[in-house]
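User: Predict the complex with nicotinamide-adenine-dinucleotide.
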Amino acid sequence: IKHYNITLLPGDGIGPEVISVAKDVLTLTGSQQGIKFRFEEMPIGGAAIDLTGVPLPEETLLSAKKSDAILLGAIGGYKWDNLEKHLKPETGLLQIREGLGVFANLRPATVLPQLVDSSTLKKEVAEGVDLMVVRELTGGIYFGKPRGFGKNDKGEDIGFNTEVYATYEIDRIARVAFETARKRRGKLCSVDKANVLEASMLWRKRVTMLASEYPDITLTHMYVDNAAMQLVRDPKQFDTILTNNIFGDILSDEASMITGSIGMLPSASISESGPGLFEPIHGSAPDIAGQDKANPLATILSVAMLLRYALQEENAARIIENAVLDTLNKGFRTGDIFSIGKCKIYKEEEKVSNKMASMQEDIAD
Ligand code: NAD
Ligand code: IPM
Ligand code: MN
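Assistant: Here is the predicted structure with nicotinamide-adenine-dinucleotide placed in the model:
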């Protein structure tokens, strides 16, 4: 029997709700596959601030570093929104990404046949979409210096950040993207703002240079504003998208809606060596937290990514992905992927009728 150590970071809002489901899924799948998981649950984000005064306690990072993989729910909430920057829940998330060195964030967006009608795009546009955003995760404007608050020449308050990428940062994420494209359909689109930003100009130059090492991959470049438009015009043109930290954040939320809901998208964040961090791309959803409305599928699919990428347990990963399809085939839906008149069986009738009522109000508004 195999043993793995998993650090669980439930976090805030719907984080603990989706992590508790994901933990059960992991345990159950493991018991079928002869795998035992030792879970260590640690605080992060607002929960950690309340408990210890900081958003990423040292013990949490230590536990994460010595684990085989980390599963995170989500962080953040109104309660902590006005704290100083170094005490914000979001800072804890950025610190753990940086602390683990997980520079490569893989965010797949796949339109499942069962959910075509949940997409906000027309069926013929959404059907068959299967793309992967490779987002740089530990650099760019999120981490660039100088940053801070100050005064301009006129004595007015200013806030400032720096978008900066070094060659090695571009090269290593580009290599992950080329390798990712190689395992997929061999198409890589690098998204930048090289018509305006120096960091993007260097990005485009390095990615173009590296392409000579991957002659089997078709590389194209696209400006981010056009990419945002193309994603809703014709998302099937994309296979693998390579982009920086902030563009990847925005484009992956956009891509999620093609699949029906942000509650569907998982992610894997990996480093050169050391454990990976697995999390849904969504946040703590304070508007629905504590109401048992959260879609746990993004986290469950993140568990599948954890098994595949961190533990090389491909069978267990497939079992989970098939169970998700099975559940959808049976008609079970949370409110976010529910589409009027298209599916008949729901988890709890009462919640669905509430959702229907609120939808009808929305339509009436
Ligand atoms: P959000 O992703 O939390 O929510 C956006 C909308 O999507 C909300 O209406 C929410 O109800 C819905 N939603 C999100 N996940 C869902 C799910 N699993 N099932 C059903 N509906 C879901 O983004 P936001 O509202 O902009 O941010 C809320 C908080 O979360 C902020 O504090 C933000 O900083 C934080 N955040 C954290 C992460 C993370 O932990 N990785 C990611 C994004 C945002
Ligand atoms: C995400 C989130 C985070 C990000 C925030 C909460 C720091 O939006 O994981 O997508 O911007 O990376
Ligand atoms: Mn985001």
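Residues 104-266 form a domain with the Isopropylmalate Dehydrogenase fold (CATH 3.40.718.10).
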